[in-house]
Amino acid sequence: MNSNTHTHSLNKRILAGFLFTLILLLPAASSLAAGHRSNRYNSSSQTQSTQKQPTQNQSDIMYVNTPSKNSLNLRDCPDVLARVICSYPYGTAVTVLQRGVSWHKVQIGDCVGYMVANLLSKENPNKPAPAPVQPTPKPQPKQQPQPKQQPKTQPQPQPKPQHASAYAVVNVRPGQVLNLRATPSRASAVLGQYPRGTSVAIYEKIGNWYRVSVCGRNGYMYADYLSIAKGTPTSNYKTVVNYNGGSYVNLRSNAGMHYPVLRRVNVGILVTVVSTGDYWTKVKYDGTTGFINNNFLK
Predict the structure, then answer these.
(1) Of 179, 174, 175, 232, which Cα lies nearest the Cα of 201?
(2) What is the mean pLDDT of the segment spanning 209-237?
(3) If one looks up domain 60-121 in CATH, what number appears?
(4) Given this structure, which CATH class describes domain 237-296?
(5) Chain region(s) in the chain for CATH 2.30.30.40
(6) Rounded to an integer, what is the distance from CA 173 to the centroid of its chain?
(7) CATH code that applies to domain 166-228
(8) Rounded to two decimals, what is the model's pTM?
(9) Which of 66, 209, 216, 255 could disulfide-link 184, Cβ–Cβ 3.0 to 4.6 Å?
(10) CA–centroid distance for 85 within its chain
(11) Count helices and strands in the chain by DSSP H and E runs
(12) Whole-angstrom Cα distance, residue 230 to residue 238?
């Protein structure tokens, strides 16, 4: 009986020690679980805060990159049947004003219109390949300096005139274009192509060529396809402009916004002034007489 009592007392002491140890460990386990939940919350918050935000499209430079290295048309609206403002050769740089799925709105010089999106690229196709790295030359022994020879005096070229001496319009057949070339030669590079009626500023004549400026670009055009405008631009002729960014203006049947539109006149075209009013000017263009608001003429 005494042995059983002693054993029962010993078991009570062992059980009491085990419960005391368990009570001591419970706060640590609870703290560890709370910390684990806190780490998961902080990790999730950090992941959400570091997600990249979408960036807005910005205007950038792209290049004409047609598969056959042909010229690309600039049109007055995003449609393959729209009027061609002018054509630009392979590799021409354009400023993208607005991106679309099939068409981009672009600007080249003073001309604004639309080009097919998949025929433009960010990389310049005419960009030359990087030059190979040349090995570092070995140092040469120093030589005695030679007396410098005076360079021969070369004749200075005459400065080209800065103001147009005359104005003309492109006079090719309907549907055709006239090339603007880099030099007065049929073999030189084509800088642009311009349809019938485009206004051209003439600076000088070189043989059968004129040095001209058209749509903000300088080059040479063959003289036989330009018709010299009679009189001065300030008196008998004015150029169509559109400060709102459009590629054309409306030629109306009378002086007022409510009158019917006879036809569209592309920006850059030279029109003949018939008479000038306070708000509207009566003009003649390609056989059609009508009225254009004074804000779209200069």
Answers:
(1) 232
(2) 78
(3) 2.30.30.40
(4) mainly beta
(5) 60-121, 166-228, 237-296
(6) 31
(7) 2.30.30.40
(8) 0.34
(9) 209
(10) 16
(11) 1, 20
(12) 12
